[in-house]
Amino acid sequence: MVTAVDTNILLDIALGSPLEATIARKALEKAESQGSLVSSAVCFAEIAGKYPNKQAITAFFRDLTIAVLPVDEETAFLAGKFFREYKLRGGTRDRILPDFLIAAHAQLYADRLLTRDHRFFTGSFQGLIAVAPQDL
Known about the structure:
The chain has a single domain, classed as Rossmann fold (3-Layer(aba) Sandwich), CATH 3.40.50. 57% of the residues lie in helices and 13% in strands. The protein has seven helices and five strands. α7 links the parallel β4 and β5. α1 packs across α2 and α5 crosses α6. It is globular.
């Protein structure tokens, strides 16, 4: 079982309250006990600004045993498809959002996405399995 980790889980660990960090860490431990952890380069970028240098952010991911995977052409294409479907449903944003890239990456390279926004991801991206920390 491969679990993709969303940015909000990482931010809970890095910057959240003690309770948020504990919940996120326990969810990661549970997910890791069932397989491996991955995250997209988009999540890496979203959290990188919170760290003073690349070594520090790389150590953060390494310490959590989360492999950072690149966003490739297949991921970008699927994100574009998700964005088109969003626009057809009446979405008002004109630029692709990081969430579309994260969802596409999780759908292609993981069995599920660990996120606090599980309802949004499940409802917005057909075929994507999104789980909340409390669901593990």
